[in-house]
Amino acid sequence: MEGLVSRPIGVGKEMGSKGAILVPALAALASGWALRALLLPPPARPCGSPGGPPVTSPRVKLSDGRHLAYRERGVPRDVARHKIIFVHPFAGSKDFPFNVSQELLQELGVCIVSYDRAGYGESDPNPRRNTKSDAEDIRQLADHLDLGDRFFLIGISMGGYATWSCIKHIPHRLAGVALVFPILNYWWPSLPREIRDAAFREMDPADRRMFKIARRAPWLLHAYVNQKLVTPSKIISMHPDVLCPQDQEILQSLPAEEEPAKPMQQGEHESLHRDLICLVGDWGFEPEGLPDPFAGGQGTVHIWQGSDDKMVQPVVQRYVAGKIPWVRYHELPSAGHLFFFVRHRCEAILKELIQPSPLSPPVD
Fold it and tell me: pTM above 0.85?
C-alpha cells in the first residue's frame, strides 16, 4: 500500500516493551530531580565570589579562611574605655540599629563593634556552623580588632544563642553580658515539659511547626519555608499576629529599610535556616548548668524581656532566669519583641551593662 513503510518484524514490539520501562524510569528520574531541587537549597553566593554580591565593608580573616564583616561606632577603639561586641538578631546584620546617641557613647567612652554573623550580610557562610563556632568567631573578631583581654557583649533575640555560647566557651574574655529577649531552645533537657508545652500553646501553629521541623528534620526546612500550601512562619514575615500592641506602634514608627534583603543576600539557607537549625539543635550545654562567669564580681549578666513578647515567651524566660542565680532579670511591663528600637530603653540597657546598679531595677 502507498505510504506504508516496511520495517523488520519484531522491532515495534521490542520498542514498545522498552518504552514501557523507559517512560516510568524517566518520569521517576525527573521527579527525583524535581524533589532534589525542592529539598536542596540553592548554592550559597559568597560575597566577592564570581556572581556573588560585592564586598563593601571591612572584614577580618579567620583561622579557617572565612571572613567576618564588621562596622564600628562610638569613640575610636584605641581610646575607648569600654568595648562592646553587638550580636545581631534573626534576619539582621551588622547594620541593625543600636538606638543610642553618639553623645552618650562619647560620654561613656564606648566603642561598639557590630558584625555580620556567619552567612549574613558580607560574612562568609559556615557550613559547619554551630553554637561553639559562633563563640569562636566572636573571640577571633575581638583578637583581630585588639579589643583587649575583656569586652562586653550585647546579644539580641537570635543573637542570644551565640552570646550564651560565649558565656560557656570564652567566659574569661567577657567584661559583662546583656541578653535582650534572647530566643530559647525549647528542647533543653532541663526544661520541664509543662513549661515547653505552655510556650507552644502561646505560639502560632505555623511557628510551632517550623521549630519542630528545624529540630526533627532540618533537611526539610528549606522546602518547608518555601512551600505555598500552608503558612510556613508568622515570625519570619513579622505578621501582626506575633506583635503585641506596643510592637505594632513601634513598627509603624520605624523608617523603611533601604536594603531589606541585604542580610540574606548570600542565601536564606546560609543565614536564616542555619540560624534556626543551630538554635534548636544540641548546644552541648544548657544555660542552667553554666557556672557564674563573674564569680569574682568583675561583671554582670543581664536578661531583658518584654512581658507581652509573642515571639519569645516570657513564661520560659522567667523559668530559665529563675534557675540561674547569677542572672539579673529585667521584665518590662507591656513591652513586646521590638522594645530595643526605643532609645531610652537601649540607653538604659547600655548603662546597666557598663555601670550595673546594686538592684538592677526594671526600666519603665
Answer: yes
